[in-house]
C-alpha cells in the first residue's frame, strides 16, 4: 500500500529509516526552508530521535517535501489541480497531457492513472508513523519538543487520511511501520478511519503550541513576526472542525470553528484585503506551506495557473470554467482580486486564477501555499449552524465572507436556500484550493434531487461539456493496480 509516486510496491520500502534519512539529505539541497538546520548526513534510526534538532528535521523536511514541485501541495501533482480538473473549475486546453485529460474527463483507469494521491499520501503516513514511533520511544528529547513533534506528526497523519478517505472511500488504516502487517491490510470502513483521524487531531491539539514555533520546534515567534508553516494547536482544531462538518457532527463543528474565530490576536478575515489573503504569513492563514525548489521562488499554483504573455502551454494548460465565472455576482470583488484576464488575440478572452500572483519562480518568495485559512472556518460554522436550524447565525457567518468580498448580505432566509447559498459561497471563496469543490459536491446532497449527491446531479452535464461521460463510480478514484495485485486483501473500487 505504501508506494512511491511512480506506483512502486510497498515491497520496495523495507528500511523504515531510509526514507527519513533520504528526505533529510535530499531536501537539504533545495531552497532553504525557513531556518532549516544544516543537513544531517550520518544517522542511525535510533539516533535521529536522540537530539531535538534532528528529530525536528524529520518533520521540517516533510513540510519541505509538501512545498516542492511535483508534490501533493504544488503544481501539476497537487490536490488543488487534479481535483479541480475532476470537478467544474477548469477548462483544459489542447496542451493538457493524457493524465490531465483523464482527470478532466472523469475517466480514470487503475492500470494507468488515478492512484497518484494513494502512493504520495501513504508515503507521508509512513514517515509520520516512523516519527511517532521514534519520538514516543525516545527518552532524550526535551519535553516541549517531544510534545510538539508528536502533535505535528499526528496532525499530518490525520491530514493525509482525511484526503485518502475522501478520495478513495474505505482505505487501509496503517498506524505502524511493520512491513509484514501493512502489506496485507484490508481497507478499513470510512467511519473507522474518521475515528482515527479524530483521535489523532485531538491528541495533536493537546501537544501543539498555541502560537507558532521556529524550526527547532520549541522557540516561539512573537505575534506579528511568525512564520505560519509549522502546524499549531489551531491548525489541528481547524482540520477537526472540517472533519466534524464532513461527519455531520454539527454541534462540535460549530464549537471548534468558534474557538478559532475567537482567536482575534492571531487570525482575522475582516481586516485582510482580498489581494493579501495568500501572501506569506497572512493574518487569515492558519497553516501554510513554504514553496521549495532549487532557486528562490514562489508557488507552483501561480506558475501553473497564471497565463503568461506567450499564452497556453504544457506548463499553463488551463483556465477557469464559465460555470465558475457565471456564479460571481457583478460586484463581487473576488473576481477582480483572484481572477485575471488573458486575451487569446482572436477576440476571445479567457479568465485564469490568480490567487497566487507571482509566477516567476526566480523572484523572492512573497507567497506561501495556504492550506488552512479562517474564511473556511466561517463557512464551516455557517453550515453547521444551518443544519442545527440556527438560520440567523448561519446568515451572519455567511455574510462575513460576502461582505469581505464587497457584497451585500445574503437574501437566503430558509434552511434550504441558506445551505445552497453556503455551497455557492464555498465555490466562490475556495476555488482552486485543495480540492474543496470536488469534495463539496461529493458530500452534499443534490438540491433538486436530495436522494443523490450534488456531484451526481450536476456532473453529467459538466462531464459531457468536457468531452467525457459521467458515471456515479467516478466520485471515487481507483486504487493503484499494483497494490491490488500484491495484496490479496485489498479490494478495488467499483467500476475499475
Mean pLDDT: 90
Any low-confidence stretches, pLDDT <50, length ≥5? 1-19, 22-44
Tally the beta strands.
6
Bin the helical content: 40-55%
Number of helices: 20
Task: Specify the overall morphology.
Answer: globular
Q: Could you say what the CATH architecture of the largest domain is? A: Alpha Horseshoe
What is the number of domains? Answer: 2
* The CATH C-level class name of the largest domain: Mainly Alpha
* Largest beta-sheet details: 2 strands, antiparallel
Given helix and strand content, the structural type is: mainly alpha
The CATH topology name of the largest domain reads Serine Threonine Protein Phosphatase 5, Tetratricopeptide repeat
Sheet with the most strands: spatial strand order:
1-3
Family: Belongs to the SusD family.
Organism: Pedobacter ginsengisoli
Domain RagB/SusD: 362-496
Keywords: Cell outer membrane, Membrane, Signal
Task: Describe the overall structure.
Keywords: Cell outer membrane, Membrane, Signal. It is found in: Cell outer membrane. Its main location: membrane. This is RagB/SusD family nutrient uptake outer membrane protein. InterPro entries: SusD-like_N, SusD_RagB_dom, TPR-like_helical_dom_sf. The chain is mainly alpha-helical and about 500 residues long. The protein has 2 domains: about 260 residues, Serine Threonine Protein Phosphatase 5, Tetratricopeptide repeat (Alpha Horseshoe); about 90 residues, no CATH class. It contains 20 helices and 6 strands. The strands form 3 sheets. It has a two-stranded antiparallel sheet with strand order 1-3. The radius of gyration is 22 Å and the shape is globular. The two termini are about 15 Å apart. The N terminus is likely disordered.
Amino acid at each position: 500500500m505504501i508506494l512511491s509516486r511512480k506506483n512502486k510496491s510497498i515491497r520496495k520500502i523495507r528500511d523504515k529509516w531510509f526514507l527519513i534519512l533520504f528526505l533529510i539529505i535530499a531536501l537539504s539541497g533545495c531552497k532553504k526552508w525557513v531556518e532549516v538546520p544544516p543537513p544531517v548526513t550520518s544517522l542511525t534510526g535510533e539516533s535521529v530521535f536522540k537530539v531535538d534538532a534532528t528529530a525536528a528535521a524529520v518533520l521540517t523536511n516533510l513540510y519541505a517535501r509538501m512545498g516542492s514541485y511535483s508534490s501533493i501541495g504544488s503544481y501539476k501533482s497537487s490536490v488543488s489541480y487534479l481535483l479541480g480538473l475532476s470537478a467544474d473549475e477548469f477548462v483544459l486546453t489542447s496542451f493538457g497531457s493524457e493524465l490531465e485529460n483523464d482527470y478532466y474527463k472523469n475517466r480514470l483507469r487503475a492500470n494507468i492513472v488515478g492512484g497518484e494521491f494513494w502512493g504520495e499520501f501513504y508515503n507521508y503516513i509512513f514517515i509520520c508513523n516512523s516519527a511517532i514511533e521514534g519520538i514516543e520511544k525516545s527518552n532524550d528529547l526535551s519535553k516541549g519538543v517531544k510534545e510538539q513533534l508528536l502533535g505535528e506528526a499526528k496532525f499530518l497523519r490525520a491530514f493525509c487520511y482525511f484526503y485518502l478517505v475522501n478520495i478513495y472511500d474505505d482505505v487501509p488504516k496503517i498506524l505502524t511501520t511493520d512491513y509484514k502487517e501493512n502489506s496485507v491490510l484490508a481497507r478499513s470502513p470510512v467511519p473507522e478511519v474518521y475515528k482515527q483521524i479524530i483521535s489523532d487531531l485531538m491528541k495533536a491539539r493537546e501537544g501543539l503550541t498555541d502560537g507558532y514555533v521556529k524550526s527547532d520546534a520549541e522557540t516561539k515567534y512573537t505575534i506579528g513576526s511568525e512564520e505560519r508553516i509549522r502546524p499549531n494547536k489551531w491548525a489541528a482544531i481547524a482540520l477537526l472542525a472540517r472533519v466534524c462538518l464532513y461527519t455531520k457532527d454539527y454541534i462540535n463543528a460549530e464549537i471548534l470553528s468558534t474557538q478559532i474565530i475567537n482567536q482575534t490576536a492571531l487570525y482575522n478575515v475582516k481586516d485582510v484585503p482580498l489581494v493579501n489573503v495568500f501572501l506569506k504569513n497572512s493574518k487569515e492563514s492558519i497553516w501554510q506551506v513554504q514553496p521549495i525548489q532549487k532557486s528562490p521562488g514562489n508557488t507552483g499554483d501561480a506558475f501553473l495557473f497564471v497565463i503568461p504573455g506567450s499564452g497556453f502551454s504544457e506548463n499553463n494548460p488551463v483556465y477557469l470554467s464559465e460555470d465558475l465565472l457565471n456564479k460571481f455576482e457583478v460586484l463581487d470583488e473576488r473576481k477582480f482580486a483572484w481572477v485575471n484576464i488573458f486575451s487569446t488575440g482572436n477576440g476571445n478572452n479567457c479568465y485564469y486564477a490568480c490567487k497566487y500572483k507571482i509566477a516567476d519562480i526566480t523572484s523572492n518568495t512573497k507567497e506561501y501555499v495556504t492550506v488552512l485559512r479562517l474564511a473556511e472556518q466561517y463557512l464551516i460554522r455557517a453550515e453547521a449552524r444551518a443544519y442545527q436550524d440556527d438560520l440567523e447565525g448561519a446568515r451572519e457567518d455567511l455574510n462575513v465572507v460576502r461582505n469581505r468580498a464587497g457584497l451585500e448580505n445574503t437574501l437566503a432566509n430558509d434552511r434550504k436556500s441558506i445551505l445552497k447559498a453556503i455551497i455557492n459561497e464555498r465555490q466562490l471563496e475556495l476555488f482552486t484550493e485543495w480540492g474543496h469543490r470536488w469534495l463539496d459536491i461529493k458530500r452534499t446532497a443534490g438540491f433538486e434531487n436530495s436522494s443523490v449527491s450534488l456531484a451526481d446531479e450536476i456532473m453529467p452535464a459538466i462531464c459531457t461539456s468536457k468531452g467525457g461521460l459521467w458515471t456515479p463510480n467516478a466520485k471515487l478514484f481507483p486504487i493503484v493496480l499494483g497494490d491490488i495485485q500484491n495484496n490479496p486483501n485489498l479490494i478495488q473500487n467499483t467500476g475499475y
